[in-house]
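Protein Entry — a single chain follows
Next Lines — sequence and tokenised fold
***
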Amino acid sequence: VLRRLEAQHLIEVAPGRGSFVREQSSGQARGYDALYRAGRPTVRQLIEARLPLEVEMVRLATRHATDEDIAVMRGARDALESATDVVVKAQADMEFHDAIAVASKNPVLRIMLSSISGMMFEMMLRSNSDPSIGEPGVPHHPEIFEAVEARDEELAATRMREHLMLGLRTYGADLDVQVDIMARNHIETLLGQAEVRRAGGGRAGE
């Protein structure tokens, strides 16, 4: 039993001193990423998992956020809105959702979010570079932030739910594709587009 616990990084065995429970962190939660990927989750399944997690998280954040938490959230929102590079935009997107997790004051929820952050980032690369995702009238980060700042729990929860549900309407055939495969295909598309732009620029300069 001790060997299994040690293999899972749940305890540390110190020769001559005994066994000690290891402190867990958000960073260590990412070790579960491989475990999730072994189950070959689809985009739809990832969205279904995020819905209850992040809707409750934003409720708690609306209730418990400090002025400092609000400031961090605002900074992430501004970075997301001003970013033009797809990768920078996806990073800011992750930071916004993590800021909500921190503001929830529930470390269990934050670690749960962190454990799926790799797959979330892959989805965000697609979402932040696909014009069809920007469906008019759907709440996005500024609207979610406004509800949190106004301390309106129900509105924040509703806006987060609608924001996450957008993927179920806009991902099309990719919904039931494995997250890894969707990400690889989309990154290859982005690289192909970059090559076309580079070639076009080269011809224009000749």
The chain has a mean pLDDT of 84. The CA atoms of residues 65 and 120 lie 23 Å apart. The beta strands are 11-14, 18-21.
